[in-house]
Amino acid sequence: MLKFLGRRSAFHEEQNNAYFIDGDRLVLIDCAMDGFHKIRKLGEEKLAGGLVREFVVLVTHTHGDHVGGVPMLIHYAYYILKKPVTVIAPSGEVREDMAFLFDRLEGCAKDGYRLITVDEAEYPWLKCAISTKHAPELEGRCFGYQLLIDGRNVIYTGDTCMLDPFLPYIEEGTVLYTEVSAFKTPVHFYVGNLLEKETLFRDKKVEVFMMHLDDKEAILEATRDTGYKLAPLVSEN
User: What's this model's pTM, rounded to 2 decimal places?
Assistant: First the structure.
């Protein structure tokens, strides 16, 4: 399943960064700058349990705490590690935004990365991108993903203010990674709304992991009798 380099929200030092291993690929879901530095510090071989041939980055949306480290990963992989990076955008519009970031703003080497959309991706673990609601300024450009990892249906919400777009993809035995906020706002998913889904998830035997936490202690207190768990952090030892 997924491991996390960080599981906190935008204004924390350790921001939300998930990854899993696909053979000799290290697959990241977003990559903030602190996520990149943790990859550099720990070493991709330790994270992957062996040699890494390629980095793959799935982009959920273009906020800095989700993609700020992707250009640096491209630079580092190209100049230092001599390894390719594939970046997968959830839509053509997000692909254009990422191309502007890589080409015009960061000046990434053209042969240092491949930028494609979900529709162009050839990875069997990538089922689809799921459009969701987050910041109104990014309307239509925020996504989560349906993945198939170790034979299990995995739903990853990215940043979202609701679970409704993801419910049709949740089947019995699904593993759900959902953002959770201790505060009721129009841009993030409120923990009280997650509690309302407890019966549904229990009946469908859904394993729920909480991520993108703004107030970890408050969220843990609110969910302590539910079986919901914190997204697992990778060990630094």
Answer: 0.97
Q: How confident is the model at residue 163 (pLDDT cuts 50, 70, 90)?
A: very high
CB-count burial class (<10 Å; 0-12, 13-18, 19+) for 216: middle
198 Cβ neighbours under 8 A, 6+ residues apart: 226
pLDDT in tens, 147-157: 999 999 999 99
Q: What's the per-residue H, E or C state across 10-71?
A: CCCCCECEEEEEECCEEEEECCCHHHHHHHHHHCHHHHHCCCCCEEEEECCCCCHHHHCCHH
Q: 217 to each of 11, 104, 197, 213, 214, how far by Cα in Å?
A: 16, 41, 20, 9, 9
At 52, which amino acid appears? V
pLDDT > 90 in the chain, percent: 95
- The Cβ-side half-sphere exposure at 103, using a 13 Å CA radius, reads 10
**Domains observed in the chain:** 3-230 (3.60.15.10)
